[in-house]
C-alpha cells in the first residue's frame, strides 16, 4: 500500500548510517541514501517530531553458517555519518543485534513519547531495517518505509524486502512522498 498518512506522533528511525557500514559496497550509492535520510531528519526536527538514530557497535554471539562479526567493532566503525547532523534532542540507540529493539531502550522511548508510527530509513534494508520493522509491527506500531532512503549489500535481498516483506508490514513511499505527507498532515 502506498503511503497514505502519518500519525500525529510519528518518529523517524534511521538505521546504521555509520562510518563503518556506509563504507561497504551497497547496491545504491550510500551518499544518496544519506542525503535523503538527512532530509527526513531535518524535516522531523523542524516539526518537533522524534528522531531516533541507530548504530550498531557489535554483533550478537551464536553460531551461523555464514561468517559474521561478533563482539565489538573497531574504533570509529559505529560513528554516525556527520550529514545526519545529530542533535541533542535526537535519541541514540546503540545495538548489538540486527534489529533496533532487542536489548535497547527503543520501545520504552517510543512509548514515553507517545509514538504510534515510525518512518524507517537506513542500511541494510534486509537486515537492520527489516528486523526493526518486524519488531515494530509486532508491537502494533504503524510503519512507513522511505524506500529510496535505504539500501543493502545485495540487490536481491533489498528487492525482496521492498516488494514482499514491507508491504505486509506497513506502507511504502519515497523520501519526497514522506516529506509531502509530513507537510500536509502538519499544516
Indicate the radius of gyration in whole angstroms: 15 Å
Give the biggest sheet. 6 strands, parallel
Spans where pLDDT lies below 50 across 5 or more residues: none
Q: What is the count of distinct domains?
A: 1
Name the CATH superfamily classification.
Isochorismatase-like
SS summary, helix count: 6
Share of residues in helices:
25-40%
Question: Got a strand count?
Answer: 8
| Multimerization state | single chain
The CATH class turns out to be Alpha Beta
User: What are the secondary-structure elements, in order, as H or E?
Assistant: EHHEEEEHEHEHEH
Keywords: Hydrolase
Protein name: Isochorismatase family protein
InterPro entries: Isochorismatase-like_dom, Isochorismatase-like_hydrls, Isochorismatase-like_sf
Domain Isochorismatase-like: 10-177
Amino acid at each position: 500500500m502506498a503511503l497514505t498518512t502519518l500519525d500525529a506522533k510519528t518518529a523517524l528511525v534511521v538505521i546504521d548510517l555509520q562510518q563503518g557500514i556506509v563504507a561497504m559496497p551497497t547496491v545504491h550509492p550510500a551518499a544518496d541514501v544519506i542525503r535523503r535520510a538527512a532530509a527526513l531528519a531535518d524535516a522531523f526536527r523542524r516539526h518537533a517530531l522524534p528522531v531516533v538514530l541507530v548504530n550498531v557497535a557489535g554483533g550478537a554471539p551464536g553460531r551461523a553458517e555464514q561468517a559474521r562479526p561478533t563482539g565489538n567493532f573497531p574504533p570509529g566503525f559505529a560513528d554516525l555519518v556527520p550529514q545526519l547532523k545529530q542533535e541533542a534532542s535526537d535519541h541514540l540507540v546503540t545495538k548489538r543485534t540486527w534489529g533496533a529493539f532487542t536489548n535497547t531502550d527503543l520501545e520504552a522511548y517510543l512509548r514515553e513519547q507517545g509514538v504510534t508510527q515510525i518512518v524507517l530509513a537506513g542500511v541494510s534494508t534486509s537486515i537492520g531495517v527489516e528486523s526493526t520493522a518486524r519488531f515494530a509491527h509486532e508491537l502494533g506500531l504503524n510503519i512507513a518505509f522511505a524506500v529510496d532512503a535505504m539500501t543493502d549489500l545485495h540487490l536481491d535481498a533489498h528487492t525482496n524486502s521492498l516488494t514482499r516483506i514491507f508491504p505486509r508490514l506497513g506502507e511504502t513511499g519515497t523520501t519526497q512522498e514522506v516529506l509531502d505527507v509530513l507537510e500536509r498532515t502538519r499544516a
